[in-house]
Design brief:
Helix content: 55-70%
Largest sheet: 6 strands, mixed
């Protein structure tokens, strides 16, 4: 599209009817300054970028004035040849000079005539170190050779990767010195105000330690650096020997300005509480703008030229401030005015670029004026916020004082009432104490009677318990318990293991390895570990229950049935009752019968007989 637009411009320039060139600039003692705009000086567009100066000299007819030229029509891929026709008077009291206002132009090659009709050249631009400029001034200037009287033409070859504001001034050196001093004086006031506001807010941060003041200080610094890039001051004072910074500093400073502005606005307006949706909108804007900046910085610097995109975050901040103010947040009123002015400043710049409004001095410096007014109103906003907070604090303190006074009066009143009630209550308590003394004496007598009754009840309970145990023991000895009745006595494994523990060791533990009678708790419950040899002995070791592979409570019942020969169960019946395999029941019964048939059978039978009697006695 760029090449196509360049071709169209070239064709229009070539085939359009020739326009009358601007009259020659007459340099004499009656004038001190001439201002030439891009649309009223002869210009030739070279879309091929290959034309030499000699070719330009022989192509005078292609120079034409373009009154309808607009900034948006500027072709960044073309080369512009500018011709300035001069007419020098014979007698002059001052030296004259030519000045280009736009200090961001990448490359300007100037061609000045000599007395022998040859030309000498001088090359400047923001691609070169600042110290190589003819004048150590932010703009580009050359001295006009006024020794050549009469007519002479000055030629300039202009190339720039972004829009170039080709406005040229022809003035006396004295006029330039006065203008330059006044301009730098105004710049000193502007940047001095930025410095003062930044230091002021930094001191406030150290006083109250609120992070938004740091955000605002960083925002102010970004505004200063951005304005210095726009004015060419940064090129002169910050990085004069690194002209490559000129290509990215503008975009980096603009990003920093928007970035800290978003953070400051989010914090000042307290959007996380007052408007969570706008809070997340600000967050996403920060993320997307940062991603765009990183991409432009690493991959494509030309994206820095899309400066009008900053209207989006500024519009969002402006809308957020209006929304929060409409909800009753008073400190946002000056904030709305400040960002409204800044929004108008950026909007004015965009309208100038689109040629909607003319480029005049007030519109050219509209962004600087907006920055100054915005800083003033933002400072008012911060001060107003502090004032409102102070008023709220004072009102709260006054309410606290009034409340304390009311509390003191209420306290005195309540104390008097309490004193009277205490007197009444004291009399009542004395009467009730006498009554309580009588009641306590009666209660002591009743307690003695109750204790006597409790002693009798404990004796009766003990006798009743013994009777129940005897009945259960008789039932067990008579060998007529069912499985359900037996499970009430031995309901689970811990009960069986606890019984085995008492039956096996009781209070007379002896290690089967070394005979030691001291032990500790074993690896698991119901195990004992010898303190001498360290042998761990389980509660089932050396018993018929050792290493059985089914629940021990079922083994207890099989032992009980085997010992109870009055009621026999078949293996199939026991297998079904206990939910065990027939072979399992048969093998365990064989193990029991083997104990009966051993040489210690009688003692074993007695032991098994006492097995359940002892358990019933313990329970």
């Amino acid at each position: 599209m760029i090449y196509l637009s360049s071709l169209v411009i070239t064709l229009i320039t070539f085939f359009a009817p020739p326009q009358s060139e601007r009259e020659r600039v007459f340099i004499d003692n009656s004038n001190v300054e001439f201002l030439l705009a891009f649309n009223d000086i002869p210009v030739m567009v070279d879309s091929t970028n290959n034309m030499t100066f000699e070719q330009v000299l022989f192509s005078q007819k292609q120079f034409s004035v373009t009154p309808g030229f607009k900034p948006k029509d500027y072709c960044t891929s073309c080369t512009y040849w500018v011709k300035i026709p001069l007419l020098v008077a014979n007698e002059l009291n001052h030296e004259w000079m030519v000045e280009f206002y736009d200090q961001t132009i990448d490359e300007i090659t100037a061609y000045f005539p000599n007395e022998d009709n040859t030309y000498y050249t001088d090359k400047v631009g923001d691609f070169q170190p600042f110290n190589e400029k003819p004048f150590l001034h932010k703009n580009f200037q050359w001295i006009v050779d006024t020794n050549i009287k009469g007519q002479q033409n000055l030629y300039f070859r202009v190339r720039s990767h972004s829009y170039a504001d080709v406005r040229i001034s022809i003035r006396t050196v004295n006029e330039f010195v006065g203008y330059a001093l006044n301009e730098y004086f105004l710049y000193g006031i502007f940047y001095g105000m930025i410095f003062i506001v930044g230091v002021y807010n930094l001191l406030i941060y150290f006083a109250i330690r609120e992070i938004k003041y740091i955000y605002y200080c960083l925002y102010i610094i970004s505004v200063g650096v951005y304005a210095m890039c726009v004015d060419g001051i940064a090129y002169q004072y910050l990085w004069p020997s690194w002209p490559q910074w000129n290509q990215i500093a503008y975009g980096a400073a603009l990003f920093s300005l928007i970035f800290w502005s978003l953070l400051f606005s989010r914090r000042f307006l307290n959007l996380s509480v007052r408007s969570p949706r706008l809070y997340w909108a600000i967050n996403w804007t920060i993320i997307l703008r940062t991603a765009l900046f990183v991409y432009a910085l690493i991959f494509n610097h030309r994206l820095f030229e899309y400066r009008n995109i900053e209207i989006i975050p500024l519009s969002l901040i402006f809308y957020c401030s209006i929304r929060v103010w409409s909800k009753g947040y008073k400190p946002a009123r000056f904030f709305v005015v400040a960002y409204g002015i800044l929004f108008l400043g950026f909007l004015t710049k965009a309208l100038i670029f689109l040629s909607v409004i003319p480029l005049v001095t007030i519109s050219y410096y509209s962004l600087h004026i907006s920055f100054l007014l915005e800083m003033v109103f933002l400072t008012f906003a911060l001060s107003d916020r502090v004032r409102i907070l102070k008023d709220n604090r004072d009102r709260a303190q006054n309410r606290i004082i009034r409340q304390q006074q009311e509390n003191a009066e209420l306290k005195d009143k309540v104390n008097k009432e309490l004193e009277e009630k205490i007197k009444e209550r004291t009399q009542q308590l004395e009467e009730k104490n006498l009554l309580l003394a009588d009641t306590n004496q009666k209660l002591e007598e009743q307690t003695k009677e109750i204790n006597a009754l409790n002693s009798k009840l404990d004796l009766d309970n003990w006798k009743l318990k013994n009777n129940i145990q005897e009945i259960l023991q008789d039932r067990l000895i008579n060998k007529n318990l069912t499985l359900e009745q037996f499970q009430k006595i031995f309901p689970d494994e811990p009960t069986c293991y606890r019984f085995l523990e008492k039956l096996k060791w009781g209070t007379n533990y002896h290690c089967i390895k070394c005979g030691n009678d001291k032990y500790h708790e074993g690896k698991t419950k119901f195990m004992r570990r010898c303190t001498k040899c360290g042998y761990n002995e389980s509660v089932t070791s050396n018993t018929i229950f050792h290493r059985i592979k089914f629940p021990i409570e079922k083994a207890f019942f099989i032992l009980y049935i085997t010992n109870n020969k009055r009621k026999e169960y078949t293996l199939d019946q026991l297998s079904e009752m206990l939910d065990l395999r027939r072979n399992t029941v048969w093998n365990f019964k064989k193990k029991i019968e083997k104990v009966y048939d051993s040489e210690n059978g009688k003692s074993s039978t007695a032991l098994i007989h006492n097995f359940f009697n002892t358990h019933l006695g313990d329970n």
